[in-house]
Design brief:
globular; mainly beta
Length: 347
């Protein structure tokens, strides 16, 4: 690798911030991976136990939907169009379209289920996209940019920027986000300011949750967020190695989690989601898995190990659960998003 390329890579790594560096150690871009989608059933736990989670598919490259146009190849570069590079946060909209923040390619990949095509948001306008959230009422996709310290709201259809959040000093490495369509509030993890900031649908600040510390309601580099159907906010309090829960107005409710190197504990907690039964899913980048807890923080099941087969991961990061209990996990250094199904009726 040339000195110039090494310098560019070092600069890219430096802008991520302390949290992202801890999660996703920078590495040179690897060659394009185009794994086959395997046949057969993959379920957890293993038989003869009743299955609770089933692997469905993975999304990774342009061949999932066919070849993109020559214009797109020219704008981004043929190699980057072909493949997710460093997928981070994931989210879906009401139509089932999958949005993936790709920090290496500086864009958001859209696996458009309506148009059966792969497209992009934020070409040449994003520095280091990390978090994603969707307002289905307005068709806005929110993207947190950890390099520019802003949150952009893109029109999901036209790719126009419809809203920008974050004046001077507002954010320091914003990361995970969630949009509550009941209250029309956007929650943003302001990672290096050790807080969660809340805005209305027009980007006006409403209130701030937390400050740096270890007590209830305090944070040490908060990262990923989720919200359940009852409006409970879940915050991955990364370097306190725990998950904290708040009501929609920011009042502390409960917490769980401790540092450790075995299942049921956290080493590098990352993406989080909640299924329709209230089970809490937390990615652990260090463990190459995601763990499933009940509402009291009791471990129910863990899925994953190092590898490239279904249910195996290499430094996963983001996680999202849609309203049909499909679980999307950014398998970051395998350059793909794996999709699972919570088997709700298998009691």
């Amino acid at each position: 690798m040339s000195i110039k390329k090494i310098a560019l890579l070092a600069a890219r790594c430096s802008i991520i911030g302390m949290l992202i560096l801890a999660f996703l150690s920078c590495a040179p871009p690897s060659s394009v991976i185009m794994p086959d989608k395997p046949a057969g059933d993959y379920v957890w736990p293993n038989p003869p136990a009743t299955p609770k989670i089933k692997w469905i598919t993975n999304w990774s490259n342009r061949y999932d939907f066919g070849k993109p146009s020559q214009v797109m190849e020219f704008l981004i570069g043929k190699e980057r169009v072909e493949q997710l590079r460093r997928p981070n946060s994931v989210v879906t909209d009401a139509a089932g379209n999958l949005y993936v923040a790709d920090s290496e390619s500086h864009i958001v990949f859209v696996f458009d289920q309506e148009k059966k095509a792969m497209r992009f948001i934020g070409i040449r306008r994003l520095g280091f996209p990390i978090g994603l959230a969707v307002n289905n009422k307005t068709g806005i996709v929110y993207v947190s940019d950890s390099q520019q310290d802003k949150v952009y709201g893109f029109d999901k259809n036209t790719d126009d920027i419809r809203i920008t959040i974050g004046g001077p000093g507002e954010f320091k490495n914003p990361s995970g986000m969630v949009y509550d369509e009941k209250s029309d509030r956007l929650y943003v993890a302001d990672t290096q300011n050790h807080a969660v900031k809340v805005f209305d649908q027009d980007g006006r600040p409403l209130f701030t949750i937390g400050k740096r510390g270890t007590e209830n309601g305090e944070f040490n580099f908060p990262s990923y967020l989720a919200m359940d159907k009852n409006g409970i906010l879940y915050v991955v309090d990364s370097f306190n190695f725990r998950v904290q829960m708040f009501d929609s107005d920011g009042n502390f409710l409960k917490k769980f989690g401790k540092p450790g190197d075995t299942s049921g504990y956290f080493s590098r907690p990352a993406g989080i989601g909640v299924d329709s039964d209230g089970n809490i899913y937390v990615v652990d980048t260090s463990f190459n898995n995601f763990q499933i807890f009940n509402n009291d923080g009791k471990l129910l099941l863990w899925i994953g190990s190092t590898g490239r087969k279904p249910g195996e991961f290499y430094l996963p990061s983001g996680l999202y659960i849609d309203n049909q209990d499909r679980i999307y996990v950014s398998d970051t250094f395998n350059q793909r998003v794996q999709v699972f199904q919570y088997l709700k009726d298998n009691k």
